[in-house]
Design goal:
The protein is mainly α. The protein has helices at 7-19, 22-29, 33-43, 48-76.
Length: 85
Amino acid sequence: MKTLFTEKQIDLALHQAERTRAENVTRHLGIPRATFYRWKAKYGNLVPSEVKRLKQLEEENHKLKQLGASLSKEIDYGLTPMVQL
């Protein structure tokens, strides 16, 4: 799932919540509280560069899963895989 917020914006939101209530931050950003608390659980103890790297790894993992599913379908249908590894 693609997020509408950058790593810097997420980090800024988490830091703002340290100084003010989370409800104020979520209202200002126009996001549900559940989204904010999911960010906090996922990115709360990471520095911005680590957040960026985590997102890159998640994106790469997603692409590899799609590739694996595609190859699996080709094998199931008896087709020759189109991808050379």
